[in-house]
Every structure is written in structure tokens, then in C-alpha cells.
Task: inverse folding
């Protein structure tokens, strides 16, 4: 290749790196906003439960509330709080485990068919990685090239599976929003 072509390639790579850095920054900013909203809604749910419990415990107010509907709203708010914490937990753990796994040796082979036993191993390592993200399953020094290749294939499958599991965070966040809105509607409906 000529020097002109190499310089053009370097410039193109630099532009791509800058675009990806900007994308990563924007994505991180969006996630910060999302986490902040989750924290505030969790605090709001806790406050609503505590405040409404205090209100109905004061007999002098004589509030006309439908207790069963109010109780259901409390359960929905509690489910909102749990799903919010679950979303935050999953996001951090999945992101950390994926980063750790992606720097380990891996081999992507689209032609390799994973038997059920290997798929179970991969899922076990993925779930184990949620509890202990920094582990060395499939990432050790192996005696034979065949065993090394096999474990690199499994680690690559773990990386792909963890990347797919990152979508779970958004699913839990959507559930979080639905539970919050349903809880709010039930809470308002419990007071006549």
C-alpha cells in the first residue's frame, strides 16, 4: 500500500474512533438520566406508601378509602421498588461481566454447533457472572490446543449471551414504568 492509502486509512480509523467515543458518551449520559429517574421514582413510591399509611391510621381525618384498592396499590409500588433495584443491579453487573469477559481469550466460530451440555455451561457461567462478575471460567491456561480452542469457543458464547442479556435491563425498566403507573392509578382510585 502506498503512503497516501495508509494515511487515509489512519484518518478514517481516527474519525471512526471519535464517532464511537461520542456515541459512548451520549449513551452514558442517557443511562445516567435513566438511573436518576429510577432513583426518584423509588423514593416517590416509598414516600407514597408511608404517607398513605400514615393518613389512614389517623381516625380523626375520616378518609373514605377503599382499603383493598389501596393495598393493591401498595403491592404495585413495592413491585415498582423491587423492579427498579433489579434494573440497577442487572445493568451494573451485566456491564461489568461483559467488559471482563470481552478482554478474555475467545474464538467466534459461526460453524460450531453448541450441544445442550455446552449451552447449559454457558448459561451457568452467565448467571454466576451476575453474582461474581470477575471469574475465570473458560479463561485459564489449558494443556492441549483442542481444550484451549473449546474453552475459547465457550467464552465467546458467554460474551454473546451476556450482550444479549443486556437487553433485559430495558425490559425490566419498561416493567418498572408500567408498575409505577398502575400503582399510581390504583392509589388515586382508592380515595373516593
Result:
Amino acid at each position: 500500500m502506498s503512503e497516501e492509502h495508509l494515511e487515509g486509512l489512519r484518518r478514517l480509523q481516527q474519525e471512526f474512533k471519535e464517532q464511537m467515543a461520542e456515541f459512548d458518551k451520549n449513551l452514558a449520559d442517557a443511562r445516567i438520566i435513566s438511573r436518576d429517574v429510577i432513583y426518584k421514582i423509588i423514593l416517590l413510591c416509598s414516600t407514597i406508601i408511608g404517607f398513605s399509611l400514615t393518613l389512614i391510621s389517623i381516625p380523626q381525618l375520616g378518609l373514605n378509602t377503599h382499603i383493598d384498592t389501596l393495598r393493591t396499590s401498595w403491592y404495585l409500588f413495592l413491585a415498582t421498588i423491587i423492579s427498579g433495584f433489579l434494573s440497577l443491579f442487572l445493568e451494573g453487573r451485566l456491564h461489568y461481566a461483559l467488559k471482563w469477559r470481552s478482554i478474555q481469550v475467545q474464538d467466534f466460530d459461526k460453524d460450531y454447533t453448541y450441544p445442550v451440555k455446552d449451552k447449559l455451561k454457558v448459561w451457568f457461567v452467565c448467571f454466576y457472572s451476575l453474582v461474581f462478575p470477575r471469574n475465570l471460567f473458560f479463561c485459564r491456561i489449558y494443556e492441549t490446543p483442542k481444550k484451549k480452542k473449546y474453552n475459547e469457543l465457550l467464552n465467546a458464547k458467554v460474551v454473546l449471551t451476556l450482550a444479549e442479556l443486556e437487553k433485559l435491563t430495558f425490559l425490566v425498566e419498561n416493567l418498572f414504568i408500567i408498575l409505577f403507573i398502575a400503582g399510581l392509578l390504583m392509589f388515586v382510585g382508592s380515595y373516593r
